Amino acid sequence: LEAFGGDYYAEANYKLNVMIKLTAGRLFLRTAELLAAGKSDVEIMNDSKIAGFIQTAEKLHFYVMIIDQRNMPAFPANEAGGKPSYIPEDCYFMMGDNRFNSLDMRHSYTQKLTALTPDDPYSVTYYSNMEPQYVHKKYILGSALYRFWPLARRGTVQTR
């Protein structure tokens, strides 16, 4: 974990990147072996090892498709040397009440091609809408009157 400066998100994406590349490499190598052995297209399509690699690839693909909804990088992003940065004063970050099913301020309305491992020039890429943002308090209208959760703190909210 030292190589990632304690960033579990970056470490997990690095490992996922490696698993995808290994699976693709195994699939290509097995296909090349079968072609070199003179196997037909039908035999290649029905090969049990290829079927296993494809099944693994499908699972990894599914995980990549949900990665931005189930995980979150450090926010705000750390500076180049790993020094943490913070949300500016008088600004707020708003997260949905159902973390794993909320398209909240962790996400943008637009997608961009993103590398799983930014430092790897040959990284697997995917379309991401992960773009954490914050809002300045001058744009927040109204105020909280009652807190529902957590239950131990429910009740009217004291304003300053």
Radius of gyration: 22 Å
Give the count of structural domains. Answer: 1
Number of strands: 6
**Range of helix content:** 25-40%
* Number of helical stretches of at least 4 residues: 3
pLDDT averaged over residues: 87
- What's the overall geometry? elongated
- Spatial strand sequence of the major β-sheet: 1-4
Low confidence ranges: none
Largest sheet: 2 strands, antiparallel
User: SSE order, as H and E?
Assistant: HHHEEEEEE
Approximate strand percentage: 5-15%
Label the structural class: alpha+beta
Features of the shown structure:
160 residues, two-stranded antiparallel ribbon, 3 helices
Could you characterize what this model shows?
It is a single chain. The protein is of the alpha+beta class and 160 residues long. The protein has one domain (2-156). 36% of the residues lie in helices and 14% in strands. The chain contains 3 helices and 6 strands. It has helices spanning 8-36, 41-45, 48-70; strands spanning 91-92, 107-115, 125-130, 135-136, 146-147, 155-156. The strands form 3 sheets. The chain has a two-stranded antiparallel ribbon. The chain has a two-stranded antiparallel sheet with strand order 2-3. The chain starts with 7 loop residues before the first helix and ends with a strand.
Summary of the model, kept short:
With 160 residues, the protein is α+β, with helices and mostly antiparallel strands.
